[in-house]
Design a protein that fits this description.
globular; alpha/beta; 14-stranded mixed β-sheet; OB fold (Dihydrolipoamide Acetyltransferase, E2P); four-stranded antiparallel β-sheet; Aminopeptidase; 2 domains; 7 helices; single chain
Length: 349
């Protein structure tokens, strides 16, 4: 797997074949049609007063069309999206593209380098949008991302995975009350589609603490969050499905002229929630990802260090396993499964 990862990254930069320049702002009007351009976008300064930068890939088509943003690894241990972006860009011909792709294969650069989920001040960047120009380190970093990247987009796909100690199916989160968002979700090669607004509720303070998708919704940018499997790995069985789904999305947006790849019907969920332990011990989760469970079905057993059962956990209602804990060692409050509640017990198509 490590050889595959290295090969993919090296092949990508060989494909680009040009030096990357540092820029303070992204001006899409200065990029010529039919080109792929790469940059390091400055998003603050480090402790040596040197620029903090994130990688930007811009693919500008010959014809006009929407600006599609692809962001990955806002949590630094969520890496599948990086490989998906690399291979997708390599596959694209800018001469045949209508519109612009703005891709960020590694938006939380400092955390990626440290093999950790959270930013250097232990904050979750995906809970801090729109950020603050004069805030703390995380808030300023997010402010740069918001003003320099998100503000340029007409559509957004934010690429994620599970975090440490958990595993995810390939699932999509989006506000399916918005027709274009539902259409873009349906063409993904996903196991599960989860209806989730991602926007602040009416009448509540706008404030801070929005996700990237929530901030996009607030700005009127249709957005999807797609969870591509597991953390800190490149999964060869997941990456091609992600690429196919993004190509289908581009075809749906008339950015590419091609026939969409057929994808299997996904399970659609109207809501979801995690089930947690209420005691500590060794956790054995006995259900699989995407497994349909019935109300009252055994999903996990918690044992002590002598192998004696402490407690058994059962599904509180019918649903599907979206994600699950993979870490056997749990204190009270540990995650067990992420349970999706089906919409009318039917598939999405």
């Amino acid at each position: 797997m490590e050889k595959y990862c290295c090969f993919l990254v090296l092949a990508f930069f060989s494909f680009m074949g040009i030096a990357q320049e540092n820029i303070d702002r992204l001006d899409l009007t200065k990029i010529k049609e039919g080109q792929v351009k790469t940059f390091w976008l400055e998003v603050g300064n480090d402790g040596f007063n040197q620029p903090l930068t994130v990688p930007i890939i811009v693919v500008k088509g010959r014809e006009t069309g929407p600006v599609l943003g692809l962001t990955s690894a806002i949590h630094g241990n969520e890496l599948n999206g990086i490989a998906i972006i690399h291979q997708l860009i390599k596959d694209l011909n800018p001469e045949a593209l209508s519109g612009i792709i703005v891709a960020v294969p590694g938006i939380n650069r400092l955390s990626i380098e440290q093999h950790q989920r959270l930013f250097v001040d232990n904050q979750d960047l995906n809970r801090l949008f729109p950020g603050k120009k004069k805030g703390n380190r995380s808030q300023q970093y997010v402010w740069h991302l918001n003003t320099k990247i998100l503000s340029k987009l007409d559509f957004l796909v934010d690429l994620h995975t599970a975090s440490f100690g958990r595993a995810n199916s390939l699932y999509v989160r989006g506000d399916f009350s918005v027709p274009i968002i539902k259409k873009l979700a349906l063409v993904q090669d996903a196991d599960i589609l989860l209806n989730s607004s991602g926007a602040p509720s009416a009448g509540k303070s706008l404030g801070e603490n929005r996700t990237l998708r929530g901030e996009a919704a607030f700005q009127g940018v249709p957005a999807l969050t797609i969870e591509y499997g597991n953390p800190q790995v490149f999964q060869k069985e997941i990456i091609p499905r992600g690429i196919n789904g993004l190509k289908n999305l581009m075809i749906e947006l008339d950015m590419l002229s091609a026939k969409k790849t057929n994808v299997a019907s996904a399970i659609v969920c109207k809501k979801s929630y995690w089930i947690y332990t209420d005691a500590g011990g060794i956790l054995d989760v006995i259900v699989d990802l995407t497994e349909r469970v019935q109300a009252g079905q055994l999903v996990a057993v918690l044992r002590d260090y002598f192998g004696k059962d402490i407690k058994k956990y059962f599904a509180p209602e019918e649903g599907v396993v979206i994600g699950k804990s993979t870490n056997p060692i749990n204190q009270s409050g540990g995650r067990i499964i992420h349970l999706g509640i089906l919409e009318n017990n039917k598939s999405a198509k």
